[in-house]
Design goal:
With 422 residues, the protein is α+β, with helices and mostly antiparallel strands. It contains seven helices and 28 strands. A six-stranded mixed sheet has the order 2-3-5-7-6-4, with helices on both faces. A hairpin with a 5-residue loop joins β19 (316-324) and β20 (330-339). The radius of gyration is 24 Å and the shape is globular. The two termini are 21 Å apart.
Length: 422
C-alpha cells in the first residue's frame, strides 16, 4: 500500500515594510500538541533579540501596549482564517484595519509601527527563522530605528490557518515624545502628524535626536547572514511581493543594510559570493537595490545578493562588498557563514530517475537538485513501512527500519528514486 505526503506551498507577503510568512506544516498531518503560548512568546522574543544581537543591533524591550495589539491581530487571523495585515470591520475580532490603527486602538501613541507575522509555524523558532529567510521581512526585523516589540500568538484547529505569530515593532523614544506636552509658544521648529493626536507638536530637535540616539548606537553596517553564522539555510523560495518573480527556488539571500546615521549615500561597486569549500565564485547571482527592486520597497541603503541557484549543504561561503561612501572613499567588507548539514548521509538526486543502494536502520537525506528555477517537490508517493518527511521543498528525510523487507520506490510527478535495501 502506498502512502502519500504533500508539502504545502510557502508564501511570503509583505506590504509597506510589514510582512507575513506562511510557514505551513510540511506534511498533510496537523499540529496535535497545543503550544504553551506564554513559553513560545518568550521564546520568540529571546530568539529575535539573540538574532539582532548577533548582527550587532540593539536589542528590543517588550511593550505591553504593542503586545495587546499583536495578540488581538493573532486572534483575528485565527477566528477568520484570514492571514493578512488588514482587518475588516465587519468581521469578528476587528480592532483596526491596519497595524498602525490596531496599535493606536490598543493605546499606543506613536505612528511609527512595523509588523511581521507568520502563519502555521509550529513554534517560535520556526516562525522567526522563516521570517528571516525572506528579504523584506528580514529588513523589518533588523531595522535600526526600533527598540520595542509586541508579540502575539494564537493557535486553533482551522483548516487554513492553525497558528499565527504577530510581531509589532516600535520606538520607545517616539512613544514618550508623543505623550509629553511641549510649550509651543517658545521659538523653534516643531513637527506634527507623527502621533496618534496628529495635532500634537514635538520640537524637531527632540524628534531628530530620538532617531539619531538609537542609530548612533547601532553598527555602521548590518550583515545577514551575520559573520560566523552557522546552520544557515541554503535556499530561498518565494515572497509576495517577490524579489525574484521569475524564480520559485533559488539560493539563500545575502543582505546588507547601511546605517543612515553614518552613511547618507552608498555606491556599491561589487557584491560577490564565494564557495570557500570548493574555492569558486558563485557566478549566477542577481543584485537587488533601490533602483532594481521590482517592488520598490528597498531604501537606497539596502542591498541583497540573490544566488540564482540553491547554495550547497554543509558549505562555507564568503561574501564580499566593495563600495564608496558619499565622499567617494572606497571601502570593503568580507564575512563568512556556513550552511547547515542535514541529518544522515546526503544523497544528491540530479536526474529524473536514480537508483541507489541504502542500508536499513539508517537515516538519509534525499536532495532533489532543482532541474530548473521552478522545480519544487510538492507531492510524493512511497510505500508503507518507511519514515519519510520533508526538510524543505526539494529535500526529503528518509529512514529505513531494520525490519523493512524489499526495495522502495519514492516518486513525485517528475522524479523517481528506486532504493535497493541492504
Amino acid at each position: 500500500m502506498l502512502r502519500f505526503v504533500s508539502i504545502c506551498a510557502a508564501v511570503v507577503v509583505t506590504c509597506n515594510g510589514w510582512g507575513w510568512f506562511d510557514t505551513k506544516k510540511e506534511t498533510t498531518e496537523t499540529i496535535t500538541t497545543p503550544m504553551d503560548i506564554s513559553l513560545e512568546t518568550d521564546e520568540a522574543f529571546d530568539r529575535l533579540n539573540l538574532l539582532r544581537e548577533a548582527v550587532g543591533l540593539n536589542t528590543l524591550e517588550r511593550n505591553e501596549i504593542l503586545d495587546r495589539a499583536a495578540e488581538a491581530h493573532a486572534r483575528y487571523i485565527l477566528l477568520n482564517q484570514e492571514p493578512s495585515h488588514y482587518e475588516s470591520e465587519s468581521k469578528q475580532g476587528f480592532t483596526g484595519k491596519t497595524p498602525r490603527e490596531r496599535a493606536l486602538a490598543a493605546g499606543y501613541a506613536s505612528l511609527f509601527v512595523q509588523e511581521n507575522f507568520s502563519t502555521n509555524a509550529e513554534d517560535a523558532q520556526h516562525s522567526v527563522t522563516s521570517l528571516m529567510s525572506a528579504v523584506y521581512h528580514r529588513f523589518t526585523f533588523l531595522n535600526m530605528k526600533s527598540d520595542i516589540v509586541g508579540i502575539g500568538i494564537a493557535e486553533g484547529k482551522g483548516k487554513k490557518v492553525r497558528s499565527a505569530f504577530v510581531y509589532l515593532l516600535g520606538n520607545a523614544a517616539y512613544e514618550r515624545l508623543c505623550r509629553k506636552d511641549f510649550d509651543t509658544s517658545q521659538a523653534g521648529d516643531y513637527l506634527y502628524g507623527v502621533c496618534r493626536d496628529t495635532q500634537h507638536y514635538i520640537p524637531e530637535k527632540r524628534y531628530r535626536s530620538a532617531s539619531e540616539d538609537l542609530l548612533r548606537f547601532n553598527p555602521k553596517i548590518a550583515l545577514y547572514p551575520y559573520d560566523g553564522e552557522k546552520e544557515v539555510s541554503p535556499v530561498f523560495y518565494e515572497e509576495d511581493p517577490d524579489p525574484l518573480p521569475d524564480y520559485e527556488v533559488s539560493g539563500f539571500p545575502v543582505t546588507v543594510s547601511f546605517n543612515p546615521y553614518y552613511f547618507k549615500k552608498v555606491t556599491l561597486e561589487r557584491f560577490e559570493l564565494y564557495d570557500t569549500t570548493r574555492r569558486r565564485q558563485i557566478q549566477r547571482t542577481r543584485l537587488i537595490e533601490a533602483t532594481t527592486d521590482p517592488n520598490g520597497i528597498f531604501t537606497p541603503l539596502q542591498f541583497a545578493l540573490m544566488p540564482l541557484r540553491r547554495l550547497e549543504y554543509d558549505t562555507e561561503y564568503e561574501a564580499v562588498i566593495v563600495f564608496r561612501d558619499e565622499k567617494g572613499k572606497r571601502l570593503q567588507k568580507r564575512w563568512r557563514f556556513h550552511t547547515y548539514a542535514p541529518e544522515g548521509e546526503l544523497i544528491r538526486i540530479e536526474k529524473r530517475i536514480r537508483r541507489v543502494r541504502l542500508k536499513k536502520g539508517t537515516t538519509y537525506t534525499l536532495y532533489f537538485v532543482p532541474l530548473d528555477e521552478h522545480e519544487t517537490i510538492k507531492d510524493v508517493r512511497y510505500p508503507n513501512g518507511i519514515e519519510l518527511h520533508f526538510v524543505d521543498h526539494n529535500t526529503l528525510s528518509l529512514y529505513i527500519p531494520r525490519d523493512y523487507d524489499g526495495d522502495i520506490t519514492i516518486e513525485s510527478d517528475k522524479r523517481k528514486v528506486i532504493v535497493e535495501t541492504e
